[in-house]
Specification:
The chain has 769 residues and is α/β, with parallel strands linked by helices. The protein starts with a helix and ends with a helix. The structure holds glutamine and zinc ion (ZN). One of its GO terms (molecular function) is 5-methyltetrahydropteroyltriglutamate-homocysteine S-methyltransferase activity.
């Protein structure tokens, strides 16, 4: 095909669409089913209705080929485990008794069996259920769900393409099942898995699929030669079979790199590539391998995971270049639209000026269709859309929201000294010891205390006007009073105010910072039936007034013990928001850091001697490719130091991260120059303490001795044993005693008992020193 006919055939498609419905109907139906209020039949009907409505929206917008199989009751990786028969032994009885209940048992566990582990889907905030595999795993094909959904779409007269998690990615995302030796590599099961995929593909073909998409985002990560060989083998095998639909192998979230030549050479009919952000290099790489002559290329030029409007002229230029590189070029979003909210038009509170810069799933779909039209019929056919797009982008460039001269001048004036405490840690430590007068093995918590129904009701009452600001303030103060008096009685050394005023650790600050906007129904699936509404970091960031000082000062006024100030760090403020894409992330982080620095300095000025800046997202924002990590860590650590660099040597800066595996960022953690870090450690038996020690981490650390992810109360002896383990790696002068994370999801009874045991453990072990 010539470039011209490749253009004429250009079509619009997407890989997946938000599942929940405009009013989160899916969440309500699934949770209702769990509670026994919704029957299985009603749940299935709701789900089928949502699929029909999604396909209808896509088709009405002009999408030529709709995805099927992207819908899920809980998670599409779990659906893949079901499709290949990888049901863990402990769930088999439940699945055999009732497929739907067994499915939810794998997702959530039951009284008697643990669920599958959950972890983040690449560098997004979506979480999937980790397949558990072992040398004894027997795969069997179960294509029922994929086939049924395909038939539903075909019955509506639509052109449809099933979307599956690819076999290589599936295995690379898996982990050894419990009881299987840790060295077991699931990828060794590839030869066993491929015939099962072949069977599913044959079933889809028989059900009417012309094309099927196999998603291989794991190939956009750094892969070993052996893994790349496995990918080559997988697609030689599947491609070599005759009883199958045409195959479209998709990747996203980063450039394919060394995997691109592998897939370009594979005997499949098409590739879907991401051309946004870090993946933009796919364009050059594709040219370098000679393109995909005679094949289908689906070009992900619309960012599928952020919420800003596309730059049409830039995308059209990319598409024009691609025309010369493939037999057919179609237009798509870079990844499934699962990662963005459904419809920006539903946002009533966002100023029109900002709203015209936003594109959620519905708006992105329209953009994809417009770009496909421009490609097929020439840019003249979409001249009006291009003009409107150019005007919206231009308005963003000159807006006072995105360009605050004061914020910019301040960011430009930052010096190296601003990012450094006035004395090195070794000298600060003594000053802090003298000021704080803490015992060895000081006890503290991570910040939040239980978020009770009363607190949620108080916030709702404030929103609906049932109580005024004063009434709300009173309720929060009462809660702080109780939290402080409990901590004093329990014998904790460094207290917190308990964060009762915070709905969410990012949203709370976003609501108070200029430059952020909140959405009303911008829900995005985090996992299962849990949805989050990330705030939109739209403009230049500044802090009109202090955000936390009055709560911390109030708590401090109630006690002689130090009360720790509590803030969310700049990296996490970016990671859990939709961040502006019109300037480098590092520039945005610097603005947020300066706003937070004011808060840190105000806390210090009001007498706060210990300030914690949480960065639980530091590691999850790590770029997928190792080559991009140094640049990220440079701005990430700089923004943390800028936040905390303005305080006196005797003010103690804490940070907190909630994960147990941080081996690849230990140097970055050191570079934060915090005085104390608390980390998750209870489940991994203080592994982090050993890793910190191995690195030669010179500062104070509190590896968690209480697993807050479970309602279980750890005994004092258990916590003491963990402390003794910790002491083998970290000397007593630098070891803190704390839980793994905040207590907001816990109830009061277990919180009380656990913290009392934690203090008892610290006392016991102090006595042994
Ligand atoms: N300070 C926060 C809390 O205790 C930290 C939460 C987190 O690490 N995710 O809730
Ligand atoms: Zn945490």
């Amino acid at each position: 095909m010539t470039a011209k006919s490749a253009a004429a055939a250009a079509r619009a498609t997407v890989y997946g669409y938000p599942r929940q419905g405009q009013h989160r109907e899916l969440k309500k139906a699934v949770e209702g089913y769990w509670k026994g209020r919704v029957t299985a039949a009603a749940l299935r009907e709701t789900a089928a209705g949502l699929r029909r409505s999604n396909w209808g929206q896509l088709a009405d917008a002009g999408v030529h080929e709709v995805p099927t199989g992207d819908f899920s009751y809980y998670d599409h990786v779990l659906d893949t485990s079901v499709m290949v028969g990888a049901v863990p032994a402990r769930h088999r009885a439940a699945v055999a008794a009732d497929a739907l209940d067994g499915y939810f048992a794998m997702a959530r566990g039951t009284q008697d069996v643990a669920p599958l582990e959950m972890t983040k889907w690449f560098d997004t905030n979506y979480h999937y259920l980790v397949p558990e595999l072992g040398p004894d795993t027997v795969f069997t094909a179960d294509s029922a769900q994929q086939v049924a959904q395909l038939k539903e779409a075909l019955a509506l007269g639509l052109s449809a393409r099933p979307v599956l998690v690819g076999p290589v990615t599936y295995l690379l995302l898996a982990k050894p099942a419990p009881g299987v030796a840790a060295g077991f590599e699931p990828l060794t099961l590839l030869d066993r898995l491929l015939p099962v995929y072949a069977e599913v593909l044959a079933d889809l073909r028989a059900a009417g699929a012309e094309w099927t998409q196999l998603d291989e985002p794991a190939l956009a990560e750094d892969r070993t030669p052996a893994e790349l060989n496995a990918a080559a083998r997988a697609y030689r095998d599947l491609g070599g079979r005759t009883d199958r639909p045409k195959l479209l192998v998709a990747s996203y979230f980063d450039r394919l790199g060394e995997a691109l030549p592998v897939l370009a050479k594979a005997p499949v009919e098409g590739l879907a590539l991401d051309f946004t952000d870090a993946a933009a290099a796919n364009l050059e790489d594709l040219a370098a391998v000679g393109g995909l002559p005679g094949k289908r290329l689906v070009a992900g030029v619309v960012n599928g995971r952020n919420i800003w409007i596309n730059d049409f002229e830039k995308s059209l230029a990319t598409l024009a270049t691609l025309l010369g590189l493939a037999g057919q070029v179609d237009v798509a979003a870079s990844c499934s639209l699962l990662h963005v909210p459904l419809d920006a038009a539903a946002e009533r509170d966002i100023e029109p000026e900002i709203l015209r810069w936003l594109a959620f799933a519905r708006q992105k779909t329209a953009e994809i269709v417009t770009l496909a039209q421009g490609l097929a019929r020439g840019t003249g056919a979409i001249a009006e859309e291009i003009a409107a797009n150019r005007a919206a982008l231009a308005s963003r460039t000159v807006s006072a929201i995105t360009r605050d001269p004061a914020v910019r001048a301040r960011a430009a004036a930052v010096t190296d000294a601003d990012g450094h405490r006035s004395l090195p840690y070794a000298e600060r430590a003594g000053a802090q010891r003298a000021r704080l007068g803490l015992p060895l093995l000081p006890t503290t918590t991570i910040g939040s205390f239980p978020q009770t129904d009363e607190l949620r009701a108080a916030r709702a009452d404030l929103r609906t006007g049932r109580i005024g600001a004063d009434g709300y303030e009173e309720r929060i103060r009462a809660e702080i009073g109780e939290v402080v008096s409990f901590q004093e009685k329990a014998g904790l050394d460094v207290l917190v105010h308990g964060e009762p005023e915070r709905n969410d650790m990012v949203q709370y600050f976003a609501e108070q910072l200029t430059g952020y906007v909140a959405t009303r129904s911008g829900w995005v699936q985090s996992y299962g039936t849990r949805y989050v509404r990330p705030p939109v970091l739209a403009g230049d960031i500044s802090r009109p007034e202090p955000m936390t000082v009055r709560w911390t000062s109030y708590a401090q006024s109630l006690t002689d013990r130090p009360v720790k100030g509590m803030l969310t760090g700049p990296v996490t403020m970016l990671a859990w928001s939709f961040v502006r894409d019109d300037q480098p992330l590092g520039d945005t982080a610097r603005q947020v850091a300066l706003a937070l620095r004011d808060e840190v300095n105000d806390l210090e000025a009001s007498g706060t001697s210990v300030i914690q800046v949480d960065e639980p997202a530091l590691r999850e924002t790590l770029p997928l490719r190792a080559a991009d990590r140094a640049a990220y860590l440079a701005w990430a650590t700089e923004s943390f130091r800028l936040t905390t660099g303005g305080v006196r040597p005797d003010t103690q800066i804490h940070t907190h991260m909630c994960y147990a595996e941080f081996g690849d960022i230990v140097q970055a953690i050191d570079d934060l120059d915090a005085d104390v870090i608390s980390l998750e450690a209870a489940r991994s038996h203080m592994q982090v303490a050993r890793e910190l020690a191995a690195h030669g981490y010179p500062r104070e650390a509190g590896p968690g001795v209480y697993d807050i992810h479970s309602p279980r109360v750890p005994s004092a002896e258990e916590a003491a044993e963990l402390l003794r383990t910790g002491l083998r790696a970290i000397p007593a002068e630098r070891l803190w005693v704390n839980p793994d994370c905040g207590l907001k999801t816990r109830g009061w009874p277990e919180t009380r008992a656990s913290l009392e045991n934690l203090v008892a453990a610290a006392r016991t072990v102090r006595g042994e020193l």
